[in-house]
Amino acid sequence: MSDEQNIKRNEEIADQDDFSKWYTDVVLRAKLADYSPVRGSMVIRPYGYGLWENMQSHLDGRIKESGCENAYFPLFIPQSFLMKEAEHVEGFAPQVALVTQAGGEKLEEPLVVRPTSEAIICHMYAQWVQSWRDLPILINQWANVVRWEKVTRLFLRTSEFLWQEGHTCHATPQEAEERTIQMLKVYTDFAQDDLAIPVVPGRKSPSEKFPGAVNTYTIEAMMGDGKALQSGTSHDLGDHFARAFDIQFLNKQNEREYAYSTSWGLSTRMLGGLIMVHGDDNGLRLPPKVAPIQVIIIPIWKNEAEMDSTMAAADSVAASLKAAGVRARVDRDTEHRSGWKYSEYELKGVPLRMEIGPRDVASGNVVLVRRDTRAKQIVAAGEVAVTVKGLLDDIQQAMYQAAQEKLAAGTRTVSDFAQFSEVIANQRGFIDCWWDGTAETEEAIKTATKATIRCIPLKYLDHPAAEQAGGEAGEPQPDIYSGQPGKYRVIYARSY
Question: Which of 22, 101, 209, 444 has the CB geometry, 3.0–4.6 Å to 216, for a possible disulfide?
Answer without folding.
Answer: 209
